[in-house]
Amino acid sequence: MPAAILGFAGLAAFVHYNDERRAVPKGQGSDRGNVKGPTIGGPFTLINTEDKAVTGKDFLGNWVLLYFGYTSSPDVGPEQLKVMAKAINTLESKANLKVLPVFVTLDPQRDNPSHLRAYLKEFEPRIVGLTGSVGAIRQMAQEYRVYFRKIEEEGEDYLVESSHDMYLINPNMEVVRCFGVEYNAEELSEAIQKELKRTSA
């Protein structure tokens, strides 16, 4: 029994430091995401890829798909951006529904506006990239209940461990759904379409 417990503890420690450890199970994510108002979200002021100030008010009137990540993410981040890009394109082409994709970096020390612009262009030019001061990013992450922390590596290099959740935000800037990494592009677009139709009805 002790050996089994130690083995489980070792596995838990490995998962803890894995880049995907905070992924939300699909069922729980969709249920947990139906939370509105002040529970998740809040005002923010960040900088876009054109080096201009952006606040939450600038997104009023739009459905927004929000993702927190960082450009140096080795695997999960790029995959999630591909899912985001494909999902919003599917929604527009097949259902004539427009959702604004927004990417907020959790690594503002490396992800300046020009770097963020070049990175996001590789996935989808319409993705709005936001960065800012360390304090501003940390505050927004806290408001959106986003987990992240820096993991130091050799020299000055580091990774950022994060939760990798996406948030669907309605035109009033209220979070209505939360999606974990288990969603592929087709599942994500279908879930968003259902939410938009439910709201319009």
UniProtKB/TrEMBL annotation:
Matches recorded under Gene3D superfamilies: Glutaredoxin
InterPro entries for this protein: SCO1/SenC, Thioredoxin-like_sf
Pfam families: SCO1-SenC
Gene Ontology biological-process annotations: mitochondrial respiratory chain complex IV assembly
Top-rank taxon, per record: Eukaryota
GO CC field: mitochondrion
Family affiliation: Belongs to the SCO1/2 family.
Entry protein name: Protein SCO1
Species the sequence originates in: Populus alba x Populus x berolinensis
